[in-house]
Amino acid sequence: MTIPHFGYSYAGGCIQTQAGQHIHSSDHRPMSDNKPMSCFTCGRRSLFADLSRAAAKLAGARLRGVGALPSHPRWTSRASLCEFCPIRVIHKGKTYCGKPLLAQIDRGPAEGCGCPITEKAKDPSEHCPLDSRHRPAVMSGNVCNCKWCGANAESSAAAPRS
């Protein structure tokens, strides 16, 4: 059998090139760069942990929606900062912090978390993944340099003290 486009002929387990070289099929096994992986981990810390955290955030957002959990007092200013963010994504009429979680499960810290921005801004325990210069935010101890905490620090420093 000759494969004209590639110039190889195959006979009895032996491949012959146009140059006349014989390559035995046992010597020429296809190599793959795919490494065997577990179905549920795919090189990440824990898919189950990420999906569980997302389910807990969803439950918290629903409880905040009915008034059972408190919202951040300045959630509207937090959400307005996100409207000009470079990682904001609009998907089906809703704004997200990065691509929605199920559209991109594996992500870096500066790619956002995939949460809806309104619910993320209402959660008092949430932080923006970026600082004021659009670099990954850093939290050391109780001090955070994210956009939201930086804006809160600036507004409280600019407010007159009584």
Supply the helix-strand structural class.
Answer: alpha+beta
N-C termini distance: 92 Å
Shape: globular
Mean pLDDT: 75
Q: How much of the residues is beta strand, in percent?
A: 5-15%
Describe this structure in words.
- With 162 residues, this protein is of the alpha+beta class.
- 28% of the residues lie in helices and 15% in strands.
- A four-stranded antiparallel beta sheet has the order 1-2-3-4, with no helix packed on it. Strands 5-6 form a two-stranded antiparallel sheet. Strands 7-8 form a two-stranded antiparallel sheet.
In short:
The chain has 162 residues and is α+β, with helices and mostly antiparallel strands. 28% of the residues lie in helices and 15% in strands. The N and C termini lie far apart (92 Å).
Key attributes of the depicted protein:
4 helices, 162 residues, alpha+beta, 8 strands, disordered N terminus
Topology:
Layout: E1 2-3, E2 8-11, E3 14-16, E4 22-24, H1 47-65, H2 75-82, E5 88-91, E6 94-97, H3 117-122, E7 139-140, E8 143-144, H4 147-158
Antiparallel strand pairs: 1-2, 2-3, 3-4, 5-6, 7-8
